[in-house]
Write a structure and sequence with these properties.
Length: about 450
């Protein structure tokens, strides 16, 4: 046993030495990881949206890999970002609120720290989004406290873009590869901290964009659909519903809020365009990744926000483009189910860095790991009822099983026939066999994920 463990240590040390040497020799790619907040997957031209303007992201998707079936395992920022950093479900990383930090050991095994061990210079621009005591000293460059609007009226999206471009320019003559995380707060709404209702703070140059475009009302936004939910869910303290009241409770609010959301996305797209332009000019040995920490409901199911396991909340964009002159990553569209927990092992794999055993995701470009998954576990247990009734379940291409765990209330959707999730089939006699199968899969996940 001693010699076997010694052999494993020696192999890991040799791998680390080789990786560091590759980094110092300029053979490892730079990685720019761009993450938005609340960007739902269908708010993207490349994903078939009929009118949204996202030309720069569309170009990334056209010349890179567009993962059209990318999902988060928990739809709330702190937990999802912890899953991205650790490559783990919440059941394993245990971060289930906004205050909990990674332990020292857990942080050492996140992908940024593994990149740093391998010789990368690592940078964070925009908020990390995990815990109340971020590990600032771990980073070679840290610039996280960027307000929504500066004293000279610079919008946060523009400020983050400017700082990212400046950082990239300064890396032109660096002998080390770099990892840069660019974390936007858009397209999140602004909380009411100054006595005014929650709202979207859009860039002034986009205030008239989409002004003449009618915003379609989702089928699941119909009042009779909301009335079908159980009483505990329809409690006025339900955060998703209370926010709906301020943003979508009238036709006029629906039109305004949806337009403002899309304006925020177009502002993000413009920022991505500037960042990619800077990369091409100053750091062409770079792979770019774009994603979001979760999706967003724009009135679907009578809600605003994320949290619950409905498709609009858990489905996110994921685009990866290899900008190097001799790219090694593929191009095209992938429709297999991929998850936020896959990002950590994928980023490490792109850098040639060993993937920690405790990571539960897979390297999306490693055919030895990447057997196509048929389903995945979803969990959201951050707040109890009535604020956010806790929900867990299993999602596949065909079906979705969810249970409000505090109440034992089940939802079951046939996604092939009902992609808008309008009909709960949990009590439908024709679906009891497949429902039973999904209950078993759910219970197995519960036992095995820690």
């Amino acid at each position: 046993m001693f010699y076997r463990n010694l052999k494993q240590v020696c192999v890991l040390m040799l791998t680390l030495v080789i990786t560091v040497n590759r980094a110092l020799a300029g053979e490892s790619p730079n990685i720019v990881f761009i993450i938005a907040d609340s960007h739902r997957a269908d708010a993207l031209g490349a994903n078939g949206h009929p009118f949204i303007k996202t030309p720069h992201l569309d170009q990334l998707a056209k010349h890179g890999v567009n993962f059209k079936n990318a999902f988060v395992t928990t739809a709330i920022c702190a937990v999802s970002r912890a899953s991205i950093l650790s490559g783990q479900y919440q059941q394993r990383h245990k971060i289930n609120d906004f205050a909990t930090n990674f332990s020292d050991d857990a942080w050492r095994n996140t992908y940024p720290m593994k990149l740093k061990e391998a010789g990368y210079s690592i940078a964070q621009i925009g908020f990390l989004g995990v815990g109340n005591n971020p590990p600032v000293s771990s980073f070679d460059h840290w610039d996280a406290r960027i307000p929504w609007m500066s004293a000279d009226s610079v919008h946060q999206t523009d400020a983050i873009r400017q700082r990212a471009v400046e950082y990239i320019r300064k890396q032109q003559d660096s002998s080390r590869p770099f990892y840069l995380a660019v974390s936007f707060s858009a397209a999140h709404e602004i909380d009411p901290r100054d006595g005014v209702p929650a709202h979207y703070l859009i860039q002034s140059r986009y205030k008239d964009l989409y002004a003449n475009q009618n915003m379609p009302v989702p089928a699941s936004a119909a009042p009779d659909h909301w009335e079908k939910f159980p009483t505990f869910f329809k409690d006025e303290k339900n955060i998703g519903r209370s926010r709906w009241n301020g943003f979508f409770s009238s036709p006029e609010l629906h039109q305004k809020s949806t337009r403002d959301y899309y304006r925020m996305i177009t502002g993000l797209d413009e920022a991505v365009g500037h960042i990619v332009e800077a990369i091409r000019a100053h750091a062409p040995n770079t792979i770019v990744v774009y994603t979001s920490d979760h999706g967003f409901s724009l009135g679907e199911h009578g809600l605003m926000g994320k949290w619950y396991g409905f498709q609009k909340a858990i489905h996110v964009p994921l685009i990866i483009q290899d900008l190097r002159s001799s790219p090694t990553l593929p191009k095209g569209v992938r429709k297999d189910i991929v998850l936020n927990i896959d990002l950590a092992p994928t980023l490490l794999g792109m850098a040639g860095v060993a993937i920690p055993e405790r990571m539960q995701g897979v390297n999306l470009f490693d055919s030895r790991q990447n057997a196509k998954r048929t389903h995945f576990f979803y969990e959201h247990t951050v707040f109890p009822s009535p604020l956010l009734p806790k929900m867990e379940g299993v999602v596949s291409d065909n079906y979705k099983y969810m249970i409000f765990t505090e109440h034992g209330y089940e939802l079951f959707y046939d996604l092939r026939k009902d992609p808008d999730e309008l009909r709960n089939l949990a009590e439908n006699s024709r679906y009891q066999k497949v429902l039973s199968e999904y209950r078993k899969i759910y219970e197995e996940y519960k036992r095995s994920l820690e």
